[in-house]
Amino acid sequence: MILKYDISKYPFISLIQSLFDVDDLSSLHQSTNERYKYFDEVGADSATIFHKMFYDKMRSGWNEFIDAYESLISNEISTQYHEEIIYQKWPTFRVHLPDNLAVAAWHTDSEFNHPEGEINYIIAISPMFESNTVITESEPNKKDFKQICLSPGEIFSFNGNKCLHGNLPNMTGNTRVSLDFRIITRSDYEKANKLNSMTTNTKFVIGEYYKEL
Question: pTM of this prediction?
Answer without folding.
Answer: 0.94
